[in-house]
Amino acid sequence: DLVPGPVNISGSAVSFLVSVAVGTGTIPGTYPVSVIGADDTGKTTASTSFNVIVSAPVNTTPGFSLANSGPLTVPEGTSSSNTLTLTPANGYTGTANITCSVTTALANPVNLPTCSGTAVAVTGASPVGFTVQIAAATTTTVGTYTVNVTATDASSSSINAGTTFALTVNS
């Protein structure tokens, strides 16, 4: 939105302010703006133009992201671990509680694999690596599973992130 207004000139140069308001839904980009001065009859007496550059909003809320190291294969009756990385953003420090669950599309699976959660302390800007342990019983149904891992800030459940990885149980 350009907020126009009359400027009264009485013989000498006059400075004035052009205000440009950018709505929250405005698409980032460069927008040309022209300012045209006209006399009382509407005749153009002066003009100038400039660009308004709208950039994407910057997220400054502390938080984190979560990434895993890829798929995992676990033979029946054994366990293994997957390395994950919690990367803090915007000054986040604190403790993130890690929970995990295992799901599958297999029909009538027996003894789903289990996974263990943990707590991860973030004390600075560097990513923090940790592992989740996955165990398959000797009677776990052979097949493909999905491991869902969620990190939630210990003091604010509104700060969270998640990742999933494929798990194959073989014999």
What's the shape? elongated
> Sheet bearing the most strands, described?
5 strands, mixed
Task: Give the strand line-up of the largest sheet.
Answer: 6-13-12-8-10
**Average pLDDT level:** 90
Low-confidence stretches: none
Oligomer: single chain
Elements, N to C (H/E): EEEEEEEEEEEEE
Radius of gyration: 29 Å
Strand content: over 45%
Helices and strands: which structural class? mainly beta
> What share of residues is helical?
under 10%
Total strands: the figure is: 13
> With helices defined by DSSP (H or I, 4 residues minimum), what is the helix count?
0
Could you characterize what this model shows?
There is one protein chain. The chain has 171 residues and is mostly beta strands. It has strands spanning 2-3, 19-20, 29-38, 44-54, 63-68, 72-75, 79-89, 94-103, 114-115, 118-122, 128-135, 143-153, 160-170. The strands form 4 sheets. Strands 6-13-12-8-10 form a 5-stranded mixed sheet, with no helix packed on it. The protein has a 4-stranded antiparallel sheet with strand order 5-7-11-9, with no helix packed on it. Strand 3 (29-38) and strand 4 form a beta hairpin. The N and C termini lie far apart (66 Å).
Summarize the structure.
By secondary structure, the chain is mainly β. It has strands at residues 2-3, 19-20, 29-38, 44-54, 63-68, 72-75, 79-89, 94-103, 114-115, 118-122, 128-135, 143-153, 160-170. The chain has no helices and 13 strands.
Essential attributes:
5-stranded mixed sheet; 171 residues; single chain; elongated; mainly beta
